[in-house]
Amino acid sequence: MNKQYDMRYLLDRYWITRSENRELYYEIRRALPQQTHFINELLGWNMIANESVIKLEKVPPRSMPWMGIEEFNETMDYCLLCALLLYLADKEDGEQFLLSDLTETIETYMAGVCPVDWTLFQHRKSLVRVLRYAQRMGILLAYDGSSENFSTFREHEVLYENTGLSRHFMVHFGRDISACQSVQDFEAFAWEGDTEHGRLRINRVYRQLALAPAVYWSEGDTADYDYIKNQRQWIEKYLDEALGGELQIYKNGAFFMMSEEDSFGLTHPRDSALCDAVILLCTELRDRVNSVAFPRTNNDMAVITHREFRLLACQCREKYGKGWGKQLRELSDDKYCQALLAYMTEWMLLQEHADYLLFTPAAGKWIGRYPKDYNWDKQENNEVENVTTLENA
After folding, report:
1. Measured between alpha carbons, how far is 212 from 10 in angstroms, rounded to an integer?
2. Element at 142 (helix H, strand E)
3. What would the mean pLDDT of 364-390 be, rounded to a whole number?
4. For residue 390, what is the enclosing H or E element?
5. Which of the listed residues 20, 181, 186, 325 has the most CB atoms within 10 Å of its CB?
6. Cα 44–chain centre separation
7. Strands 46-49 and 246-249
8. What is the DSSP string of 188-233?
9. Would you say 53 and 168 are in contact if contact means Cβ atoms under 8 Å apart?
């Protein structure tokens, strides 16, 4: 395993446990000294490495729409997870406990924050999501019984075992965070007091390039741009050595692009019908921006209304929909547009505001087209899903 793959494993996984993958655990642990400078000095992250787990505490530079736990649907899910972690903090490694004891204790913890009522199906279902996630992460083991049945039967019993990994789950900030009440508080907290001559700016830039699809800046705040432009050679060198890829810089944004053969994790573009629809929409948008005088911001982002976006998206589906899978073709206009908005926001292709949308430079960077010999009639008659084959333009 080379240095780049070591770092990719650390970025792509929440943690690496010895119990789950013993061989990978020891390979990564032996390679950690080679990553010390990149992790500690450039990213400014903490590394946990002990006899049971290796975890890179990936604190992002700012919150993004795609962040969070995919399985969770409600705020209560996160509250119950915190209550579960508090409960496990009092348990010894390998100690067993019953679901009934856990639910009674959680009721006490949640009473003054977000009261739970286990007679309500939605509250039991929320706990099931949390328990399912905890088991997937290896925080606890279902020794006897299934968590799923608790959503149906309130008296259902399960015997669990505490693995001890819960004590490493939360991020250690190293400072008192009790005053932080919102995401914005945490973001401000992370960058306050930069007394080390721009070190936090270095951390912010490297974190954004390593974790997010792009780094954007505004006309009134070019500190990150100035650093990236002046240190381009070194930034590309260190990122390429650690992850493998190419740094691309434009007047209003920077991108760290991985080659197709070296990509890892969730990527864009990828083989999915929704991604194909987004790329085709970006192509239509690019053509429209070049021919129509859309308003522009100071950092060259195109401004359109929600109504204009909906119209353009529906026209795109009418034009290319025959080549898409049945599910995407038959979505209502509302759900179809919501799916596009969610995907494009997550990948920083657009910024959603109450009264308008901003299309970012990346929306014009990724465009696609169908091959000239594409058989539209055959795809429509056979209703083949995911048939779109896009070529970079």
Report:
1. 15
2. strand 140-144
3. 57
4. none
5. 325
6. 19
7. unpaired
8. HHHHS---SSSHHHHHHHHHHHHHSS-EE-BTTB-HHHHHHHHTHH
9. yes
Residues 123-132: b if buried by 16+ CB within 10 A, e if exposed: bbbbbbbbbe
Compute φ and ψ for 47, nearest 5 degrees. Answer: -120, 130
Residue 266 tokens read as 């969730």
C-beta of residue 275 within 8 angstroms of C-beta of residue 343: yes
Q: What secondary structure letter does DSSP report for 234?
A: H
DSSP 328-388: HHTS-HHHHHHHHHHHHHHTTSEEE-SS-EEE-HHHHH--EE--TT--HHHHHHHT-SS--
At 253, is the secondary structure helix, strand, or coil? strand
Helix, strand, coil shares, percent, the chain, to 5: 50, 15, 35
Q: At what angle do helices 183-191 and 199-211 cross, to 10 degrees?
A: 130
Tokens read off for 338? 């919501």
**Is the pLDDT confidence value at 198 over 50?**
yes
Rounded Cα gap, residues 15 and 68, in angstroms: 16
Cβ-based neighbours of 56, under 8 Å, separated by 6 or more: 10, 11, 15, 39, 45, 47, 48
Is the bond leading into 115 cis (omega within 30 degrees of zero)?
no
> What span, in angstroms and rounded, lies between the C-alpha atoms of 149 and 132?
11
Distance, in Å, from the CA atom of 383 to the CA atom of 371, rounded to the nearest integer, reads 18
Q: What percent of the chain is predicted at pLDDT more than 90?
A: 39
Q: Tokens 């009674």 belong to which residue?
A: 104
Cα separation, 277 vs 190, whole angstroms: 37
Please report, for the chain, the start and end positions of each structural domain, with discontinuous segments joined by +.
Answer: 3-59+174-261, 75-168, 273-392
To which residue do tokens 């690496």 refer? 16
Question: Is the Cβ–Cβ distance between 110 and 83 less than 8 Å?
Answer: yes
Two tokens at 343? 């995907």
The three-state secondary structure class of 152 is coil
Among residues 143, 133, 51, 157, the alpha carbon closest in space to that of 94 is found at 143
* Structure-block tokens of residue 83: 């209550």
